[in-house]
Structures are given as C-alpha cells and as structure tokens.
Amino acid sequence: MGSEGAAFSKSRGEDERVSDCLFCKIVSKEIDAEILHESSEVLAFQDINPAAPTHVLVIPKRHIGSALDLGPDDGDLLVDLFETMTSMAKTAGLDNGHRLVTNVGSDGGQTVDHLRFHVLGGRSLSWPPG
Predict the structure, then answer these.
(1) Domains and CATH numbers, the chain
(2) Tens of pLDDT along 81-117?
(3) Could you tell me the pTM of the whole model?
(4) φ/ψ (deg, to 5) at 76
C-alpha cells in the first residue's frame, strides 16, 4: 500500500470521519446534498457536476480512501454498495444499461480521497472513457 493508502488505514472505525473530507462532511450533514438513499453503511446522492443524465454517487459512510483500502472485513459493505447501485439504476429507469465507475488515485481520476462509485446512465456511453 502506498503512502496515500496508509494515511487512511487508521480511519476504518465506524464512527471516524476525516474532518477535511468532502464526502465525510456530506455524511455528517455538514454539507447539503440531494440524498437519494441512506442506510447504516451507505449514502447515495446526486453528483453536483453530472457527466450523464443520471449520475449518482454511492459512498460508504465510513471513511475509506479508495478501493485499495478495502479488506477482507468489507464484504458486507460491498454487498450494500452494490445493492444500492442496482437500486439507483432501477429507480432511474436505466433499463438499456448503465456504467459503474470507481476511480483510484490521481492518475485514475480520483479527486477526493473517499471511496465512491459513480452510477452513470440515461444515454449511450462511449468506450474507452477519458
């Protein structure tokens, strides 16, 4: 694990948040968001800068830096994340398909160090992206 990932390994406790993390502030309701779904582990909300007609962000409420910081104890969380993404796609009527994306690190396009999945759809999506 690189130095970036090591900085997040100490933040795996259920109630721990990173004070300067944008998504931790959304979880704690310090910053407003158009919340579409909330469970004990997961939050889903509209992206404020959508890249498609449907662009929902699905995040763990617990601060996890990126997919690199997931471990063997995160299986239940991953199930909750993927069930939420499926629900968001169905609710948005993305019957013709959609894309799930997570970015890891700066070269991968990650702009905030908090794991998130993008649910994108509502139009034909080209490949490769970016």
Answers:
(1) 3-121 (3.30.428.10)
(2) 999 999 999 999 999 999 999 999 999 999 999 999 9
(3) 0.86
(4) -65, -40
